[in-house]
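user:
I keep going back and forth on a fold encoding question. Separate attempts, laid side by side, tell us more than any discussion would. Would you put together a sequence-and-structure record for a protein of your own picking? Write it directly below this note and I will take it from there.

assistant:
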Amino acid sequence: MDLGFWGFRHWPFDRSFSADRFFASQQHDEAMARMLFLVEESRRCGIIVGTSGTGKTYLLKLLQQRSERLGRLVVRCEATGIEGEEFIGQIAVGCNAAVDPNATSARIWSGLRARFAALAVIRQPLIILIDHFDQVEFRCQQAVWRLNQLADAVGLKLTVVLATRDRTFPAVLQDLVELRIDIAPWNSSETSHFIKSAVEHAGCRDALFTDDAISAIHEVTNGVPARVVSLSSHSLLAARGQDQMLVTREYVEAAASELLPRGDHVPANHFSPSTQSSRGRRAQSPRGF
């Protein structure tokens, strides 16, 4: 990719994790502050709730990095489709328990108890971050409760942070939760600020997106951060395909038509009639946000 065409040092809409490019919208900044409060005060459990693409995974990665700088031992788990035995095996490996993760459940719990006790002796707080917790089975929910009971029994300072899309939280864990953090999609101002900040941070001081294009991006994506990033990226490439630096609404339309799943369409009221003729000029990009 010819970054020099725009004067970029790096691609502004990269979906991979990069802490130095964290866009601190007001709600994400507040969410991070509240999660750090959980860590610093060694509170028992907090949950982050938000629809897919609102930045929960990014926040957990950032929280891991900042918690480790505070001297915490951090275990981060991906919970999608995981079963109870595999879940506690991941925790055991992550906190360096002297146990085979493929051992029986009883042996893993025994190893975890010994490790938790050792961490308590050296006063080493433990942070467990679990992403996509809405995808786990009931035994994983029970395991989180049991981990807290085990930590209490040996005097370990344990904080568990769960990220979920489900606003109805499991009854077995409700008594543990001390803080709930809701993440909503960006409003139009936040979407605009993100796009302009990302371009500037990448090294280009020119306004590469018209206000009308930014409005279109927000309308199509409903302000969901992951979708904003994806559509902004492909809109920029659509303009480049026509040797244009400036992204206008017509290039957003072309990119959106490619990105939307098959059978979906860009609502007509999202774009003015004058842009409909641009449907033939589309970015070559994979379907689906």
